Amino acid sequence: MFKKSMKTILAKFMRRLIRAQLQKTSHEKLFHSSEIRVLRAFRRAAKKSYAYRTLLAECGVSTDAIKSAQDFVRCCPILEKSNTFRRFSLSQLISDDVPTHKIASVLTSSGHGSGGFALGLSTRDQLSSTPDLIDLGLELAFDIDRYRTLLINCLPMGVTFQSNAVCVANVSVREDMACAIVEQSGQLFEQIILCGDPLFLKKLCDYSREKKVDWSRFRMNVIVGEETFSETFRDYLAKTLQISLDNPSSGAIISSMGVGELGLNLFTETRETITLRRACIDHPELLTQLFGAGNTSHTVPTFLIFSPLRTFVEIDGADAQGIGDLLISVLDIAAPIPLLRYKTGDRAKLISSDQLNQALQQAGVKLEHPLLPMVALLGRAKDFLPSGGHVDQYKHALYKNPTLAKNFSGAFRLSQNDDSLLWEVQLVRGCAGDPAEFAVDLYDAFPEGGDKLKVVCHFFEDFPYGKSLDYERKFIYWIA
Predict the structure, then answer these.
(1) What is the DSSP string of 408-465?
(2) What pTM did the predictor assign?
(3) Where would you tag: which of 56, 105, 182, 238 has the fewest CB atoms within 10 A of its CB?
(4) According to the model, what pLDDT value does residue 450 have?
(5) Which of left, alpha, beta for 233 (phi over 0: left; psi -120 to 50: alpha)?
């Protein structure tokens, strides 16, 4: 018992120490360390990975020629599923210095829209340190060292959490299990963290309303993963779960982004980045300062922090506003599969402290800066529409009216219909309203659509794409 208590005290001390170090370390020092680490990761991959050596040779890249991070960015190939997991066998991808018996876990990518899966492997040593990494992230986001915490993981089965500091319930996509755990064991804890994707969290909210779950009894928090979401959806969750977004002592609703083959929680929101996003909505001139008047996506990006000590982040093919394809290099030299300059399929922009300072000053807005460097995520590249709009605009409109939003499951499909865009929306199970009236209300909530948008609402059972909504797979909102 004493030994366990000392381990817990030491873990808390280390989390506080790391937080203090982050507060004192400049972003410039972090990026410098990142550049040193990416060169080390490159040399290891070039020496130990058959697949990476092959790709370098095909590009005519000599290992000796890569002497700086600038050389690495300029010369080394961009990796993606097509030239890694679809081309090479796993044995060719795995680094020679990782014996098979040391591999302890395999996590697949979602396979969403890619026609195949990529794999994320972890060694036993990596797994043993995972709980401490998770606990550090939870402490930075939710103050788990101050509150006795229950984390209910509602992500699809296969994605689990390990923690040395919080109680974890891995229930997968079972809203009845999640609510039962809250009702029967919630009183043992001071705060609850729900983790899930937007569609399932909507379902959970609807179910909890039917069961009259009183969320106000707890300090509620949410981790939203798997896909981007709108501020209107954050407001919807906050209202249902009794979270006061503007109150620092209340719970928080944060987005977390991971890539199955690269790692979980690579990017995360903080209270500071959420405040920045909401400020961009309240002060459009701030959004213009950050992205320029030529930004045509009509979406407010999600602002996320990342650790340069864990990943080397690039934006490839940036346009005049600095927006391009997100590339990530994993810096862990124990990673079984070295993945460098890996294209995630997301559009993003790096925002420096100087850029943020200048934008805030010119827009006349005062905000606190996040501890770590920040990236603005504009969503998946394949979710941009031919009109220049984005799927996220429709997610925004769906939750614009919270009372109306109670009637929708959250699932919808966009498709090209001659010269117009067809927006088909699924109503919740048992909805008694008139689908045509709901369609009119949704059209009015989306004035940008004009005459070229046609809205159709379907009863739950009649939604043509409902069979693909099982909450285990990522739902497809738009097919080009």
Answers:
(1) EEEEEEEEEETTEEEEEEEEPTT--S-HHHHHHHHHHT-GGGGGGEEEEEE-GGG-TT
(2) 0.89
(3) 105
(4) 55
(5) alpha
